[in-house]
Amino acid sequence: xxxxxxxxxxxxxxxxxxxxxxxxxxxxxxxxxxxxxxxxxxxxxxxxxxxxxxxxxxxxxxxxxxxxxxxxxxxxxxxxxxxxxxxxxxxxxxxxxxxxxxxxxxxxxxxxxxxxxxxxxxxxxxxxxxxxxxxxxxxxxxxxxxxxxxxxxxxxxxxxxxxxxxxxxxxxxxxxxxxxxxxxxxxxxxxxxxxxxxxxxxxxxxxxxxxxxxxxxxxxxxxxxxxxxxxxxxxxxxxxxxxxxxxxxxxxxxxxxxxxxxxxxxxxxxxxxxxxxxxxxxxxxxxxxxxxxxxxxxxxxxxxxxxxxxxxxxxxxxxxxxxxxxxxxxxxxxxxxxxxxxxxxxxxxxxxxxxxxxxxxxxxxxxxxxxxxxx
Length: 375
Known about the structure:
This protein is an alpha+beta fold. It has helices at 23-30, 276-279, 281-303, 317-322, 331-347, 354-366; strands spanning 2-8, 16-22, 39-44, 52-58, 66-72, 78-83, 90-96, 105-110, 116-118, 128-134, 142-148, 154-159, 166-172, 180-186, 192-197, 204-210, 218-224, 230-235, 242-248, 256-262, 268-273. The strands form 7 sheets. A 3-stranded antiparallel β-sheet has the order 1-2-3. It has a 3-stranded antiparallel β-sheet with strand order 4-5-6, with no helix packed on it. It has a 3-stranded antiparallel β-sheet with strand order 7-8-9, with no helix packed on it. The chain is flat, with a radius of gyration of 72 Å.
């Protein structure tokens, strides 16, 4: 009933270990029973020593060490066995004085790899003197020759171009209205170069300002920091922003008022409010209807005048007899008779003569009306 857990495996020349735990006590402990857990650790002995096999060999040289690499066929462990370098086998060759390029003293050479060394003083090196073959210019390269004073060896070298040595001849700075330029000239070859500068932009600064108010324009003045030019601008006048301060309401037939104050400049104005009756829809409809009726009556009078002329009845016979003896008629009766005759003429459209009208009047006197007209 043991649970085994290997904690360290055994290998060549090294023991291992295994941990044992009782399954029953472990289960009881997991369920909460207070029972001591049975455990033990056992050693796993190493099976045997390493079994090494040669895997790789690197031979030693005169200057570098070599090695043999061995590896255990059981566990894979490996190590290297170092082979020391043999070293050179030198032999004297000659003896000489040092020169510009070679060291002096005794010369020794390895009989195996031909490596050489000297035990005398080092080489002196060349003692060169310069000989200019071609002078460099501002744009072209030159040439020089180096010649050793001791051994006569020569070496050719290139001289870099000098480049222009430009000096300013004239200079005009750019301004806001026009560009500038800078003219330079090389002090060696005389070549000239011109550098052109674009004109600047105005850099205006506000120097004077008058704000705009209601009904009055404002102004602003600017001065350029670069050239000093002055420009002015006009600010559009502001408009009143009215705000009601106090008001008197309109009555049915009386006007009202509203006092307004501008929020910007504190100006005041008074507005009149129409009476309620004038602004009511019923009043507007009645006034419009009256105007239409008056216009219709005026048109009727113009185009139909006969409908509006007054007709008088004939004079009774009794009235005529009561006034006999009078040779002439009164002015009122004469005008009445004239109007009656005119009306009759209009009704007959001018077809009857004056004699016919007189006969009709005489007949009317003979046949009085049934109902006399009161005076």
